[in-house]
Write a structure and sequence with these properties.
Shape: globular
Strand content: 15-25%
Largest sheet: 6 strands, antiparallel
Number of domains: 2
Number of strands: 12
Order of helices and strands: HHHEEEEHHHHEEEHEEEHEEHHHH
Structural class: alpha+beta
Helix content: 40-55%
Number of helices: 13
């Protein structure tokens, strides 16, 4: 939505990494021009893989997982496109945190090594509390112990005896009364139709415009406060986010499946790549626009590298986990609508000769990101985007 574009530019001006997150389309536009990059087998990719697109959440089975969690840009693509973006994000992200460049290179190399090794074994893995280690294990413990009311308390408050969202104009923004009523009515009807049985009786209490992430700021996104009627004072939050065409697709020559809507694409690929998806994950249509509907996850449950920057062993463990999950997501979705079969991914993992080319490209492109960011920051300060 145009009125939130200024907010996106403000976020992008914070650091080179935030700029990188907000310019996914530029990355792939430049990547498509590089003929020297190894192609690799075709796989389903999330499309915007970076350090902050992994997080902990409760699945629809109510168990806790740490996994890839953003599929807005998901497409069928050579695996090297996904890996190039992720490795570049390590270099740019660590640079923004003032982490030693040698450590950043080591982390990037570790990601490539672990990713290849996981593919070579041909068996997808997942991370849950029993198998997690290091800071990821702590994250999952926090998710397991968190009460839903803690999340609700951060976003809502009682007014005149009714629970409503707190409009802070940071995370949540007010929407006009007509649209609000239409949204409330829409979700109430959807839940009544799709949630059958006495254990699925919900009452939709409130809604607001939600701002989260960087690249997606500006799309239509709403959050709903819902009461679970069969349990007293049991609430949950439901996220409904507009689905747009993937910013990766214009730069790909790979034919894509025909989807009924962009939301169908996002939901289908997320369902294939994640081990377990969040509750309510569905594609819906509201006022002729496609949206992805799912239970809202706490945005705080992402790895804060600023906290662990002085403890490289923690960083190593997280990078290994991210590499394992990336390879596992691709293995999990093999042989679907044009993606390579498992044997092709295994062979690619066994042949490690391509790793140096990816790392060299990421090192070169991370410098380009810093240069582009510097130019953007100057223009932003000069109010060019106002």
């Amino acid at each position: 939505m145009p009125q939130y574009t200024a907010l996106k530019y403000q976020m992008m001006a914070e650091s080179a990494f935030r700029f990188f997150r907000g310019t996914c389309h530029l990355f792939y536009q430049d990547l498509a021009k590089n003929d020297g990059l190894p192609k690799g087998p075709l796989a389903w990719i999330c499309g915007d893989l970076h350090l902050e697109n992994f997080g902990s959440y409760k699945g629809d089975n109510r168990l806790e997982y740490f996994d890839l969690n953003d599929f807005d840009e998901a497409v069928l693509s050579p695996v090297t496109w996904e890996i190039s973006r992720m490795v570049t994000s390590i270099l740019v992200g660590f640079g923004s945190l003032k982490i030693n460049m040698n450590e950043a290179k080591d982390a990037a190399s570790l990601f490539l090594k672990t990713y290849s090794a996981t593919l070579a074994k041909g068996k997808s893995k997942y991370i849950e509390p029993e198998t997690a280690k290091g800071i990821v294990k702590l994250f999952l413990k926090n998710v397991a112990s968190r009460k839903q009311k803690e999340l609700i308390r951060q976003r809502a408050a009682l007014r005149n005896g009714k629970l409503n969202f707190v409009i802070d104009s940071v995370h949540l923004y007010k929407i006009d009364k007509k649209l609000k009523n239409e949204l409330l009515e829409y979700l109430a009807k959807w839940m009544k139709k799709n949630m059958s049985g006495p254990q699925y009786k919900y009452k939709v209490l409130d809604t607001a415009f939600r701002v989260a992430g960087t690249g997606s700021v500006g799309v239509k996104r709403y959050v709903f406060l819902v009461e679970k009627m069969q349990v007293q004072k049991k609430y949950l939050l439901v996220d409904m986010k507009q689905a747009l065409t993937s910013s990766v697709q214009p730069w790909l020559q790979t034919p894509q499946p025909t989807w009924a809507t962009e939301a169908e694409r996002v939901v289908a690929v997320q369902g294939r790549m994640q081990n377990v998806s969040p509750a309510f994950l569905s594609s819906v249509i509201f006022k002729n626009d496609p949206y992805v509907l799912k239970e809202m996850q706490p945005i705080a449950d992402k790895i804060d590298f600023l906290v662990i920057k002085e403890k490289y062993k923690y960083i190593e463990r997280v990078i290994e986990d991210m590499a394992t999950l990336t390879a596992s997501a691709q293995l999990r979705s093999t042989g679907r609508q044009g993606s390579a079969i498992g044997d092709e991914l295994i062979a690619f993992g066994q042949d490690t000769n391509w790793q140096k080319n990816i790392l060299d490209y990421a090192l070169q492109y991370s410098k380009q990101v810093k240069k582009d960011y510097a130019e953007f920051a100057i223009a932003y300060k000069q109010k060019y985007f106002s």
